[in-house]
Structure formats: C-alpha cells, structure tokens
Design goal:
Layout lengths: L2 H22 L3 H7 L4 H7 L5 H18 L6 E6 L1 E5 L2 E16 L5 E6 L6 E2 L4 E5 L2 H27 L5 H26 L2 E3 L4 E3 L9 E2 L6 E16 L11 E6 L7 E13 L4 E9 L10 E7 L3 E6 L5 E3 L2 E8 L2 E6 L1 E5 L4 E4 L7 E5 L11 E2 L28
Parallel strand pairs: 1-22
Antiparallel strand pairs: 1-21, 2-15, 3-10, 3-14, 4-6, 4-9, 5-8, 6-7, 8-10, 10-13, 11-12, 11-14, 12-13, 15-20, 16-17, 17-18, 19-20
Helix pairs in contact: 5-6
Length: 406
Amino acid sequence: MQIWKQLVLSLVILLVGLAAWVRFVPSAGPLLVSVGVPGSVVALVAPSAAPGEKGREKAGQAGAQRAGSGNQTPLVVTEAAGTALVNDRLNAIGNGEAILSVTVTPLSTGNLTEVLVKSGERIEQGQVIAKLDRDEQVLAVAQAKVQLDAARDKVERNRRLGNAVSIATLREAEFAEQAAELALKTAELDLTRRDIVAPSKGIVGIITVNPGDYVTTSTPIAVVDDRSQILVDFWVPERFANNIKVGQEVSAVAVAQVTRQLTGAIHAIDNRIDQASRTLRVRARLENPDDSLRAGMSFSVSVRFPGDSYPTVNPLAVQWSADGSYVWRVVDSKAERVPVTIIQRNSDKVLVDAKLEKGDMVATEGVQRLRDGGEVKVANAPARGGQAADQKVSSAQPVTTAEAAR
C-alpha cells in the first residue's frame, strides 16, 4: 500500500476515535474546546444536553478551572506538641553479696580434733569454731615456763650476792631471763593458734571438713557471711557516669522476691570505665534486717535521675529535605518551617531537639503543599464555643531509656 493511502487511513481512524470519545465522554468536548478546537466542530459530534445538564456541565468546568488554578488554600490536620523525658531512669541487673564475707582458714597445720559450729549457725567475732591437736604445743609452753623460772632464779641469786658477782655476769643472767620470757610467749602463741576463730560475725556456711582431717593454712574451714547488709554490683552505661553519685537513692527487687520492693543507696563507684563494654561498675547497699536476702542473689536495680526534657511530635509530622529533618508549625493559619534534630523514636511519639513549645500546633497531614509563611486551613481547628470533635490533641507521656542497660 502506498504511503499516502496509509496516512489517509490513519487520519480517518483518528477522527472516528475522537468523535466517539466526544460523543460518549461528557467532559471531552470542553477539553477539546480548551485546546483550540472550534466549538462548532465539537457541537456537530457531541450529543445535545438538556438545559439543566448544560448548567451543571458549565459549573463542573468552572470548578475544574478553579481547581487547576492552584490558588486553593492547603488543608492540614494538626496535633499539639508535647514534652517527654529521656535518661531519667536506669534499670540494670546486678549480683548481690554479703557486706562482709570471710573464708576461715587455720593459722597452723595439723589434724582437726573438734568442730564447734554447725552450718547456718550465727556466730560472733572471735568465737572458736574448730580446734587442732595441741599436745606438742602444750608441752612447749610448760618447758618455756620451766626455763623462765630458772632464769629468774639465777637473776635473783646474782642480785643477792651483790659485789661478789660482776656486772657482766648479772647482765648475762638478765638477758637469759628476757629470752625465756620471749620463748614462753612464742609457745603460748603457738598454742593459741591451735584454736581456729572467726575473724568476723555472721552466718556460717557449709562446713566441708571433719574432725580427724589434716589441714594446712590454705585449707578452708568455713565461709562466714555478714548479711546484715547486701552489696549489689551492677554496670551502667558510660553516659550516666557523671550523673550517679555515692549516697544516691536506689530501688531494687530481688528476682526471687518480685513482690517485695527494696530501697538502698549507692555505696561505691569504680574509678574507671571498662573499655570492652563501655560501662561503669557501681555498687549499691541494701539493708537486710530480717536476713531474707542471700549472697549471690540477682537483683533488678533502678536509679532515677532528673533527666532531659525534649519536645515530642507525631511521627507523621517529621519531614525530610536536603537540609535535614523539619516539621510544619501552624501559627495564626500560617505555616512555619521548624528544623528539628531527632533524639529518640517511639511508636507513637518522636522526641526532637527543636524550638518548639508544649502546645504548639504541628501539621501531621496535608503537608505536601505547604510553604514557609503560606496560608493554611486547619481541618481540625476548634469551632466557636468549643473544640472541634475531630481535633487531635496529644498528651506527652514520659519516655525513659534503660540498659543496661549496658
């Protein structure tokens, strides 16, 4: 087929399609007129309309022209900004231990002859808990006493002789007396060390030795725990290092006693940050007057701080651009762009660092057409005599971080 025939056939198909479009689509005619097609030509193809329909068609065309003009005021939904706290509470898990725990070992070697306490018994400082064999030490004390008596008699005889004895002989006898006294004290000390005494008060743990066992100075006889107070070691993130102080109040709950709330205070703080975990070791002290807590228990420790207050906005209000994040604040029906820095994201609120006050109305919907300083219409603005039913007003809830936190 020749090229001119193809062009004519294509033109005919195009004209037929346009005619069908104009006839069956009511809005097609006005659109063709707006692009320059003569109205008389369009009227030949378009179906005739009743006067009422023509009026509605003209009104629709006028509405389309107004919508296309771009002069309509943007409609937005706003929500009040709130405030919330971060870093106001620290939760951590710690391990408890007795305020004083001593492993009792003998001061001498030998065979145990007697164990005088039982596991779980409360003892006092200096109480004898076990004894070693002492026959040899008893004989050594008796021999030292005999030698001391002999030395004293010799000194007395020399003094009674007066000038008949030289000064050197007298001094030699006195030195022998002093040496005998020291020997007696040494023998008595060795005898005393055959008694194994408690260096502190507390509760005796499980005793693992029995009478007849041979023990050395490194053999543990018993572990004595003073549980009048419990020390709880826990670790806190380094950002809290400058906020936590000795004497600061803490609350704790033993994992084994979840219904009982305990109170205490910070007892000690380590002097350096652990480089591996970036945490600081802290020790709390809890009172234990009824002896219901045990060394080795795990505790959930909570410490409160003043915290940092930040504005909160709805997550839908946060927008992004090449300059960073921002929100639209609506003041007197005008949009104002406010740069923000996000501090913390939550499911229902975003904490931001921005020049926002509590109660400032922030746009959450319809933000795509806003411009800085432009007029806006608030869909949920309060009506006269009260607040609109669909207004969204948020009440900020405190937001806290934990560990722990660690």
